[in-house]
Amino acid sequence: MTLTDTRAAPIARRTRSIPTVTIVSILLLALLLLLVVAPLILLFRTSLAPPGELPFNTDVYTLENYRNALTNPRLPTLIFNTLQYAGGTVIVGIGVAFGIAWLVERTDLPFKALIRTMMFSWMAVPPIVMAFGWILLGNPGNGIFNVLLRWLLDVKGAVISVYSLQAMILITGLAIVPTAFTMIAGLLRNMDPQLESAGAVHGAGGFSVFRTVTLPLLVPGLLSVGILLFMAMVQAFDLPLVIGLTAKVPVLSTQIFLLANSDISRPDYSLTATFGTFFLLLAAVLVLVYFRTVRMSERFRVVSGKAFRPAKRPLGIWRLPATGLVMFYFLIMILPFLVLIWTSFLPFYSVPSVEALGRLTLRNYEDVFGQSFIVRSLINTIILVLTSATLVMVLSVMIAWISVRSKGRLGKALEVIAFMPIAIPPVVLAIAILLIYLRTPLYGTIWIIVLAHVTAYIAFGTRTMNAALIQIHSELENASFVCGAGWFTMLRRIVFPLLLPHILNGWLWVAGHSARDITFPLFLITASNVVAASQLYTLWGTPEIPTASALAVILVLGLLSVVVPVQIFASRLESGRRRKARRASAALAAAE
Hints:
Strand content: under 5%
Structural class: mainly alpha
Number of strands: 0
CATH class of the largest domain: Mainly Alpha
Largest sheet: none
Helix content: over 70%
Shape: globular
């Protein structure tokens, strides 16, 4: 064989591998169409069916459901409550998160690494767990806060109540602070301090510099963060379900749930689909506003290729009070979990007292692991978390590689469809998935919830992998093709190892959200596919509050035991790679 033949052989093998990518692209496109597009089409078709009918049973099309929904006297209240709840929550969350992020990123506040770790870890705590803890703290009758305030103030009745719109806004606002902190801290970390220094040189004071320089530069980024969180809060379901229904503050998400899960009549799926369509349109409008805001923020970029180190302002005498305020926030956040731990060791709920110490028992934990239906829910949760997180990241890597490296229409179509779920409220997607799989063998099994989570979280996975792949040059991949490797071999030997830290972080995000999610498990619940979150909601409503508290503690500790070690490993892996890259660059520069 000549030298020319030797060079031609790998090229021929690479040519034969091109159809593999095409075939995989077509299969992935078909899968995404089935997972994302088909349920939405059926949802819209159901909204056009006669009232109370399923689309499988009729070929009639009517706008009766839309007329019923638009003339419903509760619709203005539902919309107003939803917008008020989402707006108030975002104001509270961003206000607190901005204060903490500014202290961490721009001052000499101590314990910064601990604060960042606690913020990231707290995102793994299910909102429903926090809601139950706040109920035990602020219940009008025997909530710990009310018992304490009645004793201190010598008054009768409820001093505060957790069952109000204001309480929902405050609790949810504090709960989204870790998420908002993560995004806002990045904005502050990447802002060039020379702009603030220029203002100070011209005689402006600290507050003037902040008002005229820092804040205007941050406003577009803060606005995009606010709109993203507003979208999430409009779609929120956990706290409005647990607290809002008792407080008689219905929102769109809980209204859809009540229509689909009526205890006194047959579920009205056609009207449910109609409300879901309205909800979907509202979410689509918010997504368009978000993208417009992001494009606007591009004009305010202040980070260039020139290296800089953000300035750290000395807090001076304010260092101790600032540290105390940050620690006070974490104390407020941990109180609901502490009261759940306390309740999990009691035969029945009671406020902390010396007398109650004598009733402490492990019976509730024995019940959790001794009752077969609770054990089955824990096993289902493990299956759900491991399977959905792994499937999402495997599919995301393949979809992201094709959309980033391929310039064809297939790659663009994959990217667009994979991103669509971010605009679909979870309650709407849950109804759509319920309708499309209602008469299939998947219905009633844990696998329908797995499919739902894969559909819902594929948008996050692909966006994360897209951003990571853009930073990696394609030379190594091309080299593997020239050496005769196939496409799957290239992914396994080149792409996956390079993206491992990003894959681990994405896997953790999906696993944490899959374990804490209650929307899909409740909408798709049957006797055989109960998971820990839906079992927790059922136990609380029975009510078996001590057993529910024990299950909540086990769920939180189980999540933290996975999230924290893997996050530490991924961070160290990424830091090690950066150090090696810097050493390699330094060695190359020295050699030149």
